[in-house]
Design a protein that fits this description.
This protein is an alpha/beta fold. 37% of the residues lie in helices and 14% in strands. The relative contact order is 0.14. Strand 1 (12-16), helix 1 and strand 2 (35-40) form a beta-alpha-beta unit. The chain has two domains: 12-212 and 338-397, Rossmann fold; 240-322, formyl-coa transferase, domain 3, CATH 3.30.1540.10. The longest helix is centred in the middle third of the chain and has 24 residues, at 172-195. This is CoA transferase. InterPro entries: CoA-transferase_III_domain, CoA-Trfase_fam_III, CoA-Trfase_III_dom3_sf, CoA-Trfase_III_dom_1_sf. Pfam families: CoA_transf_3 (PF02515). Keywords: Transferase.
Length: 401
């Protein structure tokens, strides 16, 4: 039976994050059913509300902010003021998970550090997402996506062989940190279910970046040699790269020797199978420039569409290099329901990218659009804390809300 509320229904998250890594984590928790209360600065809010253009049409919100803040309630609080800190402590009494991405030690001055909270709220799961983690010589430093991509090694691997190092075109360091944070929280929830004990989760963006160096990291550890930049070529497989076609480009992914044999026999290149330089994947990798030079004129003989049809008929990995317009028009992407529209608090409709996790019994839910700044302040303070309209008005008069 499908649950309309999600697998994390009944859990409350206090979201003290902004920008991307932290909000990615808390949006995932919200999609899975948790109630997420996002604390924002009065008047200013999350920095990304102003990361524009583009703003979403007919709203005052950036497309950036809308992308990672659905299923959250926005409450404005000036945490520097004692009255706001007292409100946060009252919220913590019924909070399961706190997620924050302040600089190391910054929340302690508000009485909200892990060491200050763990005894008072022993079931609390406290996830800290920072650039460099809570320990080590770089811990005090701020973390930014491009900086982490540079320090984490991925920029040294990305780009053309004779070109400059390149960062990935999306903020992968932030995104991975948020997703690893969510994984840590789910593990901590399972531990708490068994023991009743909360814990801190220490996520450093540089740590998570090193973790996903994957095969390239292992290539270095096994040889002691820095892998070179290869453009769109694969470090361990050939041919596995982009090729020009008659009207554009295509990715050709020949994953093993039987697939290469099928390619050669189907497309008039059977003579290559008798050439020891092409005979096995290790030999093709050692002669990757020759492989590229040999196959490029072959790939230019057909259009991209013609190649996709012909290669798919041979069960050979391939695909066009889509623009984002192509991606969001793709029939498979649409069949998988990877976008949806939501009713925004401004009165406009906003389109967002859906959660990719497909759960058969407890799928992600989309209960509320990314909030207008402070949209739920009264609802949370009156509904959860029982504060009167007069008390709330007094806090507003003091610029606490």
């Amino acid at each position: 039976m499908t649950s309309p509320a999600g697998p994390l229904s009944g859990l409350r998250v206090l979201d003290l994050t902004r920008v991307l890594a932290g909000p990615t984590c808390t949006q995932m928790l919200g999609d899975l059913g948790a109630e997420v209360i996002k604390i924002e600065r009065p008047e200013a809010g999350d920095d990304t509300r102003g990361f524009a253009p583009p703003f979403w049409p007919e709203t005052k919100e950036s497309a950036y902010f809308i992308g990672v803040n659905r299923n959250k309630k926005s409450v404005t609080l000036d945490m520097a003021k004692p009255e706001a800190q007292a409100i946060l402590h009252r919220l913590l009494e019924t909070t399961d998970i706190l997620v924050e991405n302040f600089k190391v030690g910054a929340l302690a001055k508000y009485g909200l550090g892990w060491e200050q909270l763990k005894a008072k709220y022993p079931r609390l799961i406290y996830c800290s997402i920072t650039g460099f983690g809570q320990t080590g010589p770089y811990a005090p430093r701020p973390g930014y996506d491009a900086l982490i991509q540079a320090m984490g090694g991925v920029m040294s691997l990305t780009g053309e062989p004779n070109g400059s190092p390149q960062k990935v075109g999306i903020p992968v360091a932030d995104l991975f940190a948020g997703l690893y944070g969510c994984i840590g929280i789910l593990a901590a929830l399972n531990h708490r279910n068994a023991t009743g004990e909360g814990q801190q989760i220490d996520i450093g963006m540089l740590d998570t970046h090193v973790a996903w160096l994957a095969n390239q990291g292992m290539n270095y550890l096994s040889t002691g040699e820095n892998p070179p930049r290869l453009g769109n070529q694969h470090p361990n497989i050939s041919p596995y790269q982009e090729f020009p076609t008659k009207d554009g480009y295509i990715i050709l992914a020949v994953g093993n020797d039987p697939t290469f044999e099928r390619f050669c026999k189907a497309f008039g290149q059977e003579h290559l199978l008798a050439d020891e330089r092409f005979a096995t994947n290790p030999r093709r990798v050692a002669n990757r420039d020759l492989v590229t030079q040999t196959l490029t004129p072959v790939m230019k003989t057909r259009t991209t569409t013609e190649w996709v049809e012909a290669l798919e008929a041979q069960k050979i990995g391939c695909g066009p290099i889509n623009t984002l317009k192509d991606v969001f028009a793709d029939p498979h992407v649409n069949a998988r329901n990877m976008t949806l529209e939501m009713d925004h608090g401004s009165g406009a409709k906003v389109k967002v990218i859906a959660n990719p996790v497909k759960l058969s019994a407890t799928p992600p839910t989309y209960r509320s659009a990314p909030p207008v700044l402070g949209e739920h302040t009264e609802e949370v303070l009156s509904g959860l804390l029982g504060m009167s309209a007069e008390e709330i008005a007094a806090l507003r008069a003091k610029s606490i809300l």
